[in-house]
């Protein structure tokens, strides 16, 4: 874990950013947490050690970690973004609109031919993402029960 934190800090420096105590604490928190995190959850944890850290500071650092390829931002319609560690290759997800459960889709279902013409005018593509939104089995069962109850009343 310490090596991973140090690797990210080296990357931060290489890209011309300062390593502040706040940045070090936020990076340490996110990397040690492992799972998807919200900015609010990070703020709650890091303010125990450094009460002066603001939500703006947390967001700036989370977005920087996304820029550096350390984190991936997951956006759910109507909900706060969450951030999770990149696994070294891009991933696609199916995301439940009700509970927010994310499951990785193992294969990339986009053929390289779909990208033809994207880079013709000098645009350099570095990555892509694909997210499928719907309802997980548990939430769909709840929705079906609620709809059935409404029809019966």
Instruction: Going across the biggest sheet, name each strand in turn.
Output: 1-3-2
Percent of residues in beta strands: 15-25%
Q: What's the number of extended β-strand segments?
A: 6
Shape: flat
Structural class: alpha+beta
Largest sheet: 3 strands, antiparallel
In N-to-C order, the SSE pattern is HHEHHEEEEEH
Gap between N and C termini: 56 Å
- Rounded mean pLDDT is 86
Number of contiguous helices: 5
Uncertain ranges: none
Helical percentage? 40-55%
Q: Give me the Rg, rounded.
A: 19 Å
Written overview of the protein:
This protein has 153 residues and is an alpha+beta fold. The chain is built from 5 helices and 6 strands; from the N terminus they run ααβααβββββα. The protein has helices spanning 2-14, 21-33, 39-46, 55-67, 137-152, and strands spanning 37-38, 71-74, 82-85, 92-96, 102-105, 131-134. Strand 4 and strand 5 (102-105) form a beta hairpin. Helix 1 (2-14) packs across helix 2 (21-33), helix 2 packs across helix 4 (55-67) and helix 3 (39-46) packs across helix 4 (55-67). The model has no long low-confidence stretch (mean pLDDT 86).
């Amino acid at each position: 874990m310490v090596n991973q934190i140090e690797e990210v800090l080296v990357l931060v420096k290489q890209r011309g950013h300062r390593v502040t105590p706040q940045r070090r604490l936020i990076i340490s928190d996110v990397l040690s947490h492992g799972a998807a995190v919200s900015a609010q959850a990070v703020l709650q944890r890091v303010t125990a050690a450094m009460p002066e850290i603001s939500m703006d500071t947390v967001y700036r650092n989370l977005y920087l970690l996304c820029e550096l390829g350390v984190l991936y931002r997951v956006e759910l319609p109507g909900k706060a973004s969450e951030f999770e560690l990149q696994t070294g290759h891009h991933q696609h997800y199916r995301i439940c609109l009700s509970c927010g459960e994310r499951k990785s889709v193992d294969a990339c279902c986009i053929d390289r031919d779909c990208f033809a013409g994207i880079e013709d005018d000098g645009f350099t593509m570095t990555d892509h993402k694909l997210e499928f939104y719907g309802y997980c089995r548990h939430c769909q069962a709840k929705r079906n029960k609620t709809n059935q109850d409404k029809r019966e009343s």
